[in-house]
Amino acid sequence: MSSHEYDAIVVGGGHNGLTHAAYLAKAGLRTVVLEKNDLVGGAAITEELGVDEAGPGFSFTTFSYALSLLRPEIIHELDLVKHGFLPLMMPSSFHPTGDGDYLLFGDDHAQNLQEVRRHSPRDADAYERYHHDLDRVCQAIRPLFDNAPPNVFGHDPDDAADVKWLVDHLGGVDRKTMHDTVRLLTGSAADWIGDYFQHPAIQGYHASSSVIGSKVGPMSPGSGLVLLFHKMGEHDGHLGSWAFHKGGNGGFTQVLARAATAYGAEIRLGAPVSSVLTDNGRAVGVVLEDGTELRAPTVVSALDPRRTFLDLVDAAELPLDLVDNVRRMKFRGVSAKVNFALDGLPVFPALPDSVDHYGGFLNIGPTIEYVERAFDASKYGWYSEQPYIDGAIQSVVDPDMAPPGKHVMSCFVQYAPYELRESSWEAERERFGDKAQAVLESHFPGFGDLVLHREVVTPVDIETRTGLTEGNIFAGEFLAPQMYFFRPAPGWSQYATPIDGYYQCGSGTHPGGCVIGSPGRLASQRVLRDLKR
Amino acid sequence: MLARVIRTTPFHPRLSELNSQQLYTHWQGTLSPLRYSHAPKHEYFAVRNGVGVFDTSPLYKYAVRGPDAERLLSRTLVRDVRTCRPGQAHYTAWCDDRGYVMHDGVVFRHSADEFLLTAGRPALSWFQELGSSLRVELEDVTDAYGMLAVQGPRSRAVLAALAPEAETLGYFDHVPAKVADAAVTLSRTGYTGDLGFELTVAADDAVAVLDAVLDAGRPHSIRPFGEEALMTLRIEAGLPLVDIEWHDARLAFTEADCVTPKELGLGWMLRGVRDGSRRFVGSEAIRRELVDGTSRWATTGIVVDPDDWDRLYRRAGLFPPKSEHPLPYESMLLDDDPQGGHTEIGYCTSFVYSPALQRHIGIARVRPDLAAPGTGLRLELAINHHNTTVRVATTPMPFFEPDRKKS
């Protein structure tokens, strides 16, 4: 009979911590999740805010705001539908072109082609080739994405077998797709997109996912990787499509919490962990900030690599190169949220009576140049004068997000560097909100009159509330030296740590951030394999 | 000039304005939209998570009146219409004298001797001939009324703002009400398996009633939905459709193309048949089927193993399709006994990817001994131009049944 209260302790109740705990509990481990806040979800929460002027009933996805990267295996393996999983299709994507016109993409491929043709007959067949080529790249790298990276630095036969698997797989990829893959992983989105499209707005539309959450502009090498990462998402098998979970991403993490609980995991809220207890180089439990000790032979951190390796354990117990790598790892949050409660739908002058263009993302970044200029400011420690905005009026897709006739709008806004030169986010918060709102006003005249409430979430707020270092939404930037077998550090990409019994399962591990669940799932496979379960 | 043979419904003048696609099918010779927007799945989600309206006017509607109206219907309908009180409606079916299903429909009882029967296929003369010696009048009132289905979790809130009766109306009950000053029959019926209502309204008042519903629904993001969304919804609800799940027995050439109510999954309608206490056209054949246990088929749901589905497509170098558009053809079901060589044991009549369930589901007919829930079977399909099979399991229907449907 074990003297431990638990078989496994998961530190952090974000979506990966919950996913991980659900898998461990499903395998029969007595598992507890320790969450510092009074609500699970980490950066994937939905909060009903008191909007004094408009009354109750407005739900905000404070941070993370849509679903696509979530691995479909997790939906089935954890039986999430039974616990309320409901991803609502976001049926359209709307891209004002900056000159009063727009690009509107939807669920009908032929109509999308016509929409491209309306702006550029030349770009119509490029549109088909572009998506086909990108799909092929996704197909080629999917096995890498969905399996733990091989340990190329290891010496045992398992490592050699993993490396052989990787080499064999890559050997089966045709030359064009391999070359496209490398171009995307190392090059800029602007170069990649420029090989297909000529029209500035069509280029701008396709570049939109290449800068999300990363301190890169679409012209920076590395933005291709960010673009590719987002394309790996899907909704019901449609690559690159997004969904809005019923009740927002907070609705989704509540589903995960119900699943984890149903498998027998315990979730403790308001339980911040101070440190991991070790004994002779082995993890034996954790100490909470209030001094409570909990014991378990397996401790798994769902926090980001800085917290996992530098805060929760004594760095002196770790190899120097790992500590050094984690210290040098780039976080550099550049994203903010501006969330609105609206009295009605905004009006886009060219589509005065339409609702359908508000079914999905409103992509406010007309051209690559616009987004690149927005990026420029961040290089010098300041926020964009005219930021890029990834907006969504979520109550159009899920009417339960707002009272009847009212709306909530989530705006992901870049660039907002974590460290401001000679100022602070407390001082700049509302001025930054004004900049974002002014951009919306320029595309949707009268927007400001609809605003019942505005919430500005700065990178510092992201860090303070969710624990994500420097407010980086991916728990470590998507840069080639921080991906795959280098994520979070060379030699430690397989979810274990140098401390026996101490594991990592957060977005700082492979494959990375977004509401994706893979780190939690793949880490559970590692833990269970080590425990011979 | 050609005569215009394709008709439109009383709601068409307004609904066609809301249709950005102008893609129609012909439902009973009437224009019926496949979809209103570029994304039928968005329309589907309006019903599963908000509210949608569907124009169901092309259904045949027969008024059945007279002192012997109940007698005629109880001699012809599979379900015991005598238990249907005024203010109630029954989903029902009728059979030929061999006990094979002809059509299904909903019968609304308005009073002791007044009914309205809907039908997916024309059936007036059949009922008239069976009622020729009775004091009953049948009238085809199809063109006199429009029928508007208002479906989804918010349907009650939308309609209650127009007709307070909606607030308390029970499942499959109906009540006379006023909407936009027009007399309507408000019923708690539908074909989506969700909370929902239907409004039956005189053709002249149809557009006014529709406008009132759309106005009341606007703050709830109401949207019209077409047949593509309806197909996914009705398969999730496990509801059979004539000419897909079965064919009119009187028009079939082979017995293999006919099904009995029990084989079609309507065995629950057959109260009083086995003991002979209730007689209707075909009941004697059905009684023998029940007593002798001679049903050839059992209708069941099937659900595809998602891992097997994905693996088969990925291995073939393809992306696993998850399409909410049903398969247009019938697929064979095989047993899962590798020693037995995978013999045919049934067939799948409807097959679709369910966004709500995140799985491919199907309505199937299998050998009765293989219908127990959880039985492993294989569904035949072609992948990359090669015939193969995917693992499926039988499961009870409906696939999707939220508490709100009946509460």
TrEMBL record, chain A:
InterPro entries (UniProt xref): Amino_oxidase, FAD/NAD-bd_sf
Gene3D superfamilies: FAD/NAD(P)-binding domain
Domain of life of the source: Bacteria
SUPFAM superfamilies, alphabetized: FAD/NAD(P)-binding domain
Boundaries of every Amine oxidase domain copy: 17-517
Function: Probable oxidoreductase that may play a role as regulator of mitochondrial function.
Complexes and interactors: Interacts with COX5B; this interaction may contribute to localize PYROXD2 to the inner face of the inner mitochondrial membrane.
The protein's name in its UniProt record: Pyridine nucleotide-disulfide oxidoreductase domain-containing protein 2
UniProt source species: Nocardioides mangrovi
